[in-house]
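Q: Hi! First time doing this. I have a protein sequence and I read that you can turn it into a structure. Is that right? Here it is:
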Amino acid sequence: MQLFDVYPLYDITPVKGEGPYVFDEAGTKYLDLYGGHAVISIGHSNPVYVDAIKNQVEKLGFYSNSIKNPLQEELAQKLEDLSGCKDYSLFLCNSGAEANENALKVASFHTGKSRIIYFNNAFHGRTSGVVAVTDNESIKAPFNAKHEVTKLAFDDVEGLEGELKKGDVAGVILEVIQGVGGLDEASTEFYKAASELCKKYKAVLIADEVQSGYGRTGEFFAFQKHGIRPDVISIAKGMGNGFPIGGILIDNSIPARSGMLGTTFGGNHLACAAGISVLDVIKEEKLMENAAAIYEYVKERIAEIPQIKKLKGRGLMIGLEFDFEIAALRKELLFQNHVFTGAASNKKLLRILPPLNIKKEHFDTFFEALKIVLK
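A: Yes, that's right. Below is the predicted 3D structure, encoded as structure tokens:
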């Protein structure tokens, strides 16, 4: 049986990881500045993470959510303490798309409405509901067109209020920093207005922090810079450092009822053990502070490279915008200089999403490789 074609594949097979590096079958070492789509938050094969999963699987790897699982309670408490997000309830699932699907359901259940507002260049996932609020027509099937959704311009307060005042909007979903869309971030005025308008017109504000959360921007969540409190926050990617886990934080003003949301694998024992270890490492190693400091260092270093026209993002959610399309540059960095980087829908943008414990010397390696390629 052959594998279904998902992505174009580079001819590299990683077989081992260590910190910010992966190694192929021949033992070649690659600097991973992409983290598998921002998933590797505390480094490959982090010993705290490895021990947590190994110790847990020796005790109990899985049981369903029909029994008590104290690990879920520990994860929720540590998440509250580190993020500062109090008076939320945590629902655990398996991925970012699943988190956003459940966020949309919560908005619809709570308001009794069905229409969802999303924005230009948004990416919220590929499953049925969230692909309908993803700005990429090529990945939508005719079935997905049945959802009631409205796309608006990002950072347009007037347009948002015009739709909300119609009274039929269940929720507004947004990435505070757009990932696949090109690391654009709207103004603080826009986020504050979105929060206030959702309250005024009784819609649910959903912050998709699947990629930007978990300390990646230098704060635990990207929205915290803007001083707002979303009704629902979706999380995944860096939450498990590679072990599949996702979730949503639901403001306690939204009443829950048994059976409204459900999952078989979500919040299982191994996933929670992984998630707890990630939070412990982020706290103990001060990785949010590191993300902020490394961004400042990158800001200094790009002055050496005139082909970089713009620095986008925050913390270790970095976009380097060049004055040319970067597909060949990425390939050259990978095959000739052994550096993993990412792309975006903006074809001139190089996306950098490394582990949060990356160091300045790793970026020195990257910039030297970049200079070689650009010659």
